[in-house]
Amino acid sequence: MKISKNTLYTIVVALAVTILLVSNIASTKLFDFFGTGLVWDGGAILFPVSYVLSDVIVEIYGLGRAKKIIWITLAMNIVAVVALFLVQLLPPGGGWNNQAAYEAIIGFMPRLVAGSLLAYATGQILNAYVFEKIKKATKGQRLWQRALGSSVVGDLVDTLIFTTVAFAGVISGQQFVGLIVIAYFSKLLGETILLPATYAATRFMKKVTDGEPI
What we know:
Shape: globular
Order of helices and strands: HEEHHHHHH
Number of domains: 1
Mean pLDDT: 85
Radius of gyration: 18 Å
CATH architecture: Orthogonal Bundle
Number of strands: 2
CATH class: Mainly Alpha
Distance between the termini: 23 Å
Number of helices: 7
Strand order of the largest sheet: 1-2
CATH topology: Arp2/3 complex 21 kDa subunit ARPC3
């Protein structure tokens, strides 16, 4: 089945929105990192994919279009947050005893939401900006260099902002530092492992959009 340019763009936007939305919900769970006593938020499992997608978007559509997708993704997640908050305010129906569970998992948590959205907007835009700068400096060569180089900066800012806003004062100092270190390096590791997927996705999208191959 042939995919049109418009369909491909729609899929890209849908993926960006879905990845952030799922990551935000998954971030409500902190789990022990392989018995070390250090904590890791569940959003870090999927979130590296958002930076891979961001790199592909900048590579194919450019910095301007990438910013638009970032703002669309942010807006759709705000819609989700508002909707979940309004549902949380509704009185529980008779026989439904899961209000506390709802509030704990997908209810409105100001710090978590604020940290996630602020970190996403800042980290993604910075990632896209650095990616574009490296691309120009290397004259479009070495995709891996701009993909990883931009992530080193974007991931660091994203992790610092989210962890500070969402968890500072909530977890111990050791857990706080451990969460930053583990989240940051796990994101970089995940994006490094996913480099072949970045190349494959870029080649495919350039073919669909009539771009030049890598």
